Amino acid sequence: RAYYCEPQLSSDANRHVDGINLDWDTCNPQPLKILCLNTIANNWLTIPFFREIPLGEDRHFLLDLLDLSFPLENLCARIRSDAFWRRAFVNRWKTYYPIDVDEKPWIRVYLEKHISEMLENLKPADYEQEIVQKLVDLCSLHVRELRIDHLEPPTNENGDHIPFDLILSNLRELRKVNITYDVKNAGNNFYLGCATITDKDIKLMTQGLERCYELTEFRLHSTKLEPAMMKRLAT
């Protein structure tokens, strides 16, 4: 099997190392194993080999070669390596470092940040149930904490934000929820009351919370609630 070939220098007795000419060894081809791993990495979407590679050191080598721009669906289905997901996280969020990472696998850290960012930047007018369902399905096995620090301001007449019923009810492993119905960057869409939570927002959110069977902590931040809303949350 070509894969198991190890790199070896030629045993030619006349071969000499040239300490001055740094290109003395550039004519030697790479080991066949390395060529195979490069080929797998370059064509990984069509031949997504990872667990099929027997040696751990070669798996790590392949992870360093994989393109971080590959679709998340493919990466999540095949890769669990903390080293890979840490590299992916640092590459995407260069100025942000999460807390309590020692207690979490990096794929969970990545997907919790991913879904939070996607929802925070989703405008109510652009909400499509099918697209959001795919996002939730991608993250549901790994996300245990959902933290929403702000939401896009609603542009509809009713002032409703993106609905959270489908999102919360389909995150099966959810333990903690932190939501803020506040606005950070309203821009030209600013108007008085754009950060106000509506009755429909509360209704849909509570419907989703009712199906979070593993939930242990829920926090609603910086949000003004009417008495009827508080009653709905309490029940």
TrEMBL record:
<protein>
    <submittedName>
        <fullName>T-complex-associated testis-expressed protein 1</fullName>
    </submittedName>
</protein>
